[in-house]
Design brief:
Layout (H helix, E strand, L loop, with lengths): L1 E3 L1 H8 L5 H19 L6 H14 L6 E3 L1 H6 L6 E2 L2 E6 L2 E7 L4 H4 L7 E5 L2 E2 L12 E7 L5 E7 L1 E2 L5 E8 L2 E6 L14 H11 L6 E5 L8 H11 L5 E7 L6 E4 L10 E5 L6 H13 L3 E3 L7 E8 L3 E11 L14 E2 L4 H13 L8 H14 L5
Parallel strand pairs: 1-18, 12-13, 13-16, 16-17, 17-20
Antiparallel strand pairs: 2-19, 3-10, 4-5, 5-6, 6-7, 6-8, 8-9, 11-12, 14-15, 14-19, 18-19
């Protein structure tokens, strides 16, 4: 949800004499001093954005100030575009997910790939990815270190957030969800991700257990995660509770969607599993005893809301914290019941091979441990 924050900003700047007004005056004086005396030429806009980044970051580690270019980069892959999302860290632009059957997927681009050039020009500023034409030539390095070039053209990119499915053992379905997606139709009864997962589960003949693969899933639409949890929980059972500064932010999240198959569930997690993905993993372990396998999760138990500012800028602020329903605030990463040490690159190599249809596939010790636990939950006579 996005709210316009201009009235809040004006109220702070035009407030009667007092601490907020004094701090605003001191900030303006400091900006003027830097602009006039610094040996390094700096624009008022750059100073303002730098001040806002520090101001917002001081409130919460998950809060952020977004410039107009940041805002263009923020969010899901476009539904009519190339079909990939990315993240920039320490000068490296890394693909975080690729939409199934999108132009990027057909070109072989995969999570973990490193982007190095756009239309023959070295990629130094990821903001240019938000202003691309309808056709581009993308230079990238795959997880095996091979430099590749791909010509991509914009196309429809329907995205249900589900990256892949597989049957690693008879009757055991691996369902890999990389993002939770909201409903695209305002009249839809359920979110896009829940509807897709329900269909896949219903079509899985001989289903005996589910391995829910949430590795690399940084979250997305919380309602979609709550619906998936609700499909396996008791009817109308609480999934998670959010508590904010204002009573209007308080809410107990629950859903009563169509039932999902009542089979054993194992959940795979890693350090990139965050937010809504952690909510789902936590709820399934707390209510159904679903074991968690892999590495500790990210530990992001907050609800963000975007507030729009003038000049196409925005603040992404934490407006609520998540709690066990009726209980304590959640603050730490989820610890797996079965710890399996592995590098993130191992997942990327496996996923690249799966997408390319390679045989044999690279080993996936987390998935293998998940299969072992799923078989154990089925009992000795069901192997």
């Amino acid at each position: 949800m996005r709210l316009h924050a201009l009235p809040l900003l004006l109220a702070a700047l035009l407030a009667p004499a007092g601490e907020p007004a004094e701090l605003a005056r001191r900030l303006a004086e400091q900006m003027a001093l830097i602009e006039q005396e610094s040996a390094t030429t700096v624009t008022p806009t750059a100073l303002w954005q730098g001040a806002m980044r520090g101001l917002v970051a001081a409130s919460d580690p998950h809060a952020a100030f977004l410039s107009s270019e940041d805002l263009a980069l923020h969010g899901e892959p476009q539904r009519h575009g190339f079909g990939f999302a990315w993240r920039s860290e320490a000068g490296t632009v890394r693909v975080t997910r690729v939409v199934r059957d999108a132009p990027a997927a057909r070109a072989g681009l995969h999570a973990g790939a490193r982007l190095i050039s756009l239309d023959g020009v070295t990629l130094t500023d990821p903001a240019v990815l938000a202003r691309t034409p309808d056709a581009i030539r993308l230079g990238w390095v795959d997880v095996l270190g091979q430099v590749r070039q791909s010509d991509l053209a914009r196309a429809a990119c329907p995205d249900d957030g589900i990256d892949a499915t597989a049957m690693p053992a008879t009757g055991i379905l691996q369902l890999r969800i990389s993002r939770f997606m909201a409903a695209t139709d305002q009249d839809a009864a359920w979110t896009t991700t829940f509807s897709a997962a329900r269909r896949i589960l219903a079509e899985s003949a001989g289903l005996r257990a589910v391995i829910l693969d949430l590795r690399g899933n940084s979250g997305g639409n919380l309602q979609a995660a709550v619906e998936l949890a609700g499909g396996w929980l008791s009817p109308n059972q609480a999934v998670i509770e959010q508590v904010g500064r204002h009573p209007g932010r308080n809410r107990v999240w629950r859903a009563n969607p169509p039932r999902l198959p009542d089979v054993p569930i194992v959940v795979l997690i890693d350090g990139e599993t965050a937010s809504a993905a952690e909510v789902l993993a936590h709820a399934l372990r707390r209510t159904r005893g679903a074991p968690l396998v892999g590495m500790p999760s990210h530990g992001k138990w907050t609800v963000q809301q975007m507030f729009l500012l003038p000049q196409d800028e925005a603040c992404l602020l934490t407006v609520a914290h998540l709690h066990v329903p009726g209980g304590a605030r959640l603050e730490r990463p989820l610890e797996p019941d079965a710890l399996v040490q592995h590098e993130q690159s191992a997942c990327w190599r496996r996923w690249q091979a799966e997408a390319a249809g390679l045989v044999p596939l690279p080993s996936d010790p987390v998935l293998e441990r998940g299969v072992e636990l799923a078989l154990g939950l089925l009992g000795p006579h069901n192997h």
